[in-house]
Amino acid sequence: MSEASEFNAVVTDIRLESRESGAVRWRMTLDNTRFTAGDVGVLEAVSRTGTRIEVPVLSVIVEDGDVWHVVEKPLAGGTDVTGRVTR
Known about the structure:
Elements: E1 6-20, E2 23-30, E3 41-46, E4 52-57, E5 59-63, E6 66-71, E7 80-85
Antiparallel strand pairs: 1-2, 1-7, 2-6, 3-4, 3-7, 5-6
């Protein structure tokens, strides 16, 4: 993994992507991202209790200029994250 694939950002928006057969997926936008359509990776955050949270980015969708990160566990708006593009 190169340093160029890692970045810091803040969650700016969260929306329900789908809910099928008990599986829920969410879309999140960030104030800054290095993900592009088709990428996967991970977003990391630290909870108020100090627990590190890893949220896999399952896919990335670009709609109307917005880059949406598709995840199974949403993070709250305003959450600081470190993102890593892995593919």
